[in-house]
Amino acid sequence: MVDIAERFVDLPAGIKPFLAAPPPDVIRWTVGEPGFDTPQPIIDAAIKSLKEGNTKYTRSEGSIDLCTASANRLNLRYGIPATPESIIITPGAKQGLLYTFMVTCEPGDEVILLAPAWPSYDIQCRMLDLTPIHVPVNKNNFHPNLELIESSITSKTKAIVVNSPNNPTGAVYTPSEIKSLLDIAIKYDLWLISDEIYARLNWTDWEHLSPASLEGGSERTIVVTGWSKSFAMTGWRIGVVWGPDNVMKAMGKLQANACSHIPSFLMDAAEGALDEGIENYVSKFKESYVKRRKILMDGIASINGLSMPEPEGAFYGFVDISETGMDSTTFATRALNEAKVQLIPGGLIAEGEGFVRISYACDEETLHEGLKRIGDWLNSNNQ
Hints:
The chain contains eleven helices and twelve strands. It is of the alpha/beta class. The longest helix is centred in the C-terminal third of the chain and has 23 residues, at about 280-300.
């Protein structure tokens, strides 16, 4: 048998083993899936476009109308100096991140990840022969340890990945922290890769701040975001990348030769999602997440052996299970088999041991039932 590329032989699977759909009697708290259907006007826009025959090749960066709408949204909502020419519509934000690593880094470069970080960052780096450097965050609130980040920079460091609001921890970095991260990137001449997919899901008193909007930020920040989380469009696979001219020109060549573009008829649907009329749907989604967050916080606080820093954004809680005496994989495996609740063990994520990730995007009834099952299971083990 012919060998595959060596870097893929021992490539970790990340959290994939715990994402498989469980039996129907199991509460599924693992998938970062909005607990809502895609708004009907977006679906209607896709069907209309399909019926009109919008199924042919188009501009590889994305239709000019969608790129214009995306640039306007980034500019007006977040102060990012975007133009239609500086936008690329990608097959999901995850693909946009892979493109970003490909055009900014060379094999052997180091990329700083604020750990615990979404596992795909680590895996994508390894796929490209980059070295992920996991710098632990402050465990009391999961915010960045700025001194430790700076001390981790070497001559091989090429980029820092920032994800706020954060998956898996739910942390939302303060404006001061975002500014400090940019200052570090400027000081050491690094790229700042800003994953802003959860920007609309911010439950703090401070507004989401993109480093691209700050002085000195637009020259070295690449913003990656998309439609999945805010508009309940995870399966549509539509992302957007914005960055400096040299990055976007290289990425345009990459996309043209890697996948051409996302399906043409989906571009009209994505453009429709950015219409102000869809904001009513997004507002209702956000109101529901705030309620579900409160249910999770109250529920975890009532269960002996569990604790959780307050989730500040996205729809995840990172729950400390260390007082149970179980490691995270044992906890998650037993919770699945004995309590019929599926969780993500933090041990599968660098610097995440001692925690499990819960997605509270599910409906309120499911959330209440899952909390009851976990509480009853742990109580029965302590008797």
